[in-house]
Amino acid sequence: MAAVDSFQFLYREISRSCNSYFETLALVGALYTASRALMLLRDCCTLVRVHFLPRIIPCKKLTQRYGDWAVIYGASEPVAKAYTEELARHGISIIFVTQEHTSVRDTAASLSQSYGVETIVVLADFSLDQAASKAIKEAMRGKDIGFVVNCVDESLSSPQSLIEMPEQSLLDLVNKNVAVATLMTRLVLPGMVDRSRGAVVNISSGSCCRPLPGRVTLTALTGYLDHFSRALHLEYSGRGIFVQSLIPFQVRYLISSLTLKADVYARHAISTLGVSNRTTGYWPHTLCIPEWIWVLGSRVLISSS
């Protein structure tokens, strides 16, 4: 009995001495829980503000906010093609810049017939230095260019080890997705600055945020476009230019495997113009996925392809 009394007495003394520590830990836990709750509330408010309110509240026409013409580079890619069609649906005329005429000729004709907009196809061989720039400048002369859209090459989504990629193919991909996209923006930007309005849209991939096994090139090139967009927005947002980085997660797989139609994505993405300078463009892409699930899923996709 004495032993039991001694234990109870010892337990009470220990509890009394540790009581302050328990209260401290409880306070830390409460603060952490409150901070996570505030972050969740902030994310929910951002989700509603970016992806839902713009589709409910009417705003000015795109032609009034930005301009009458758009310069599109990479329109042969499914997402860029759908984005271009959505711009045409809003009455925006299109200048296609391409290295291969056949890839956009039918698209240009279809848009003119369906939406009554003007379309121009500019053949530009960027390996010829200044020659490509001159052709683009001539096509833009006297036009109210409100948009320039650059889209990353979809072939980058195919898993391929860096050491397996031919050197010339690697150089071509870097030139097409980095140098040319930067040059296209450089050509259009002066006119936008003079008019104090315009939108620069770079469509890359969420891989710039979550690296993927077997897609080193995709991660690097999309990372450049994303940071390029953010830096441009920081520099030119005060001069009336809205620069947006669209980073949908796994463009190729989200469109094919999850049956997301490109036109649905483009419709939602365009509604975020002027609202968010860095967004996935479509609210399901915004939902957070733990990194271990992201990596595991990418490996499953690589093994199945």
UniProtKB/TrEMBL annotation:
Domain of life of the native organism: Eukaryota
Main localization (coarse): mitochondrion
Any one annotated GO CC term: mitochondrion
Sections of the chain in a coiled coil: none
Record keyword Ion transport present: no
InterPro entries: 17-beta-HSD3-like, NAD(P)-bd_dom_sf, SDR_fam
SUPFAM superfamilies assigned to the protein according to its UniProt record, in alphabetical order: NAD(P)-binding Rossmann-fold domains (SSF51735)
PANTHER family registered for this protein in UniProt: INACTIVE HYDROXYSTEROID DEHYDROGENASE-LIKE PROTEIN 1
Similarity-based family: Belongs to the short-chain dehydrogenases/reductases (SDR) family. 17-beta-HSD 3 subfamily.
Stated name of the protein: Hydroxysteroid dehydrogenase like 1
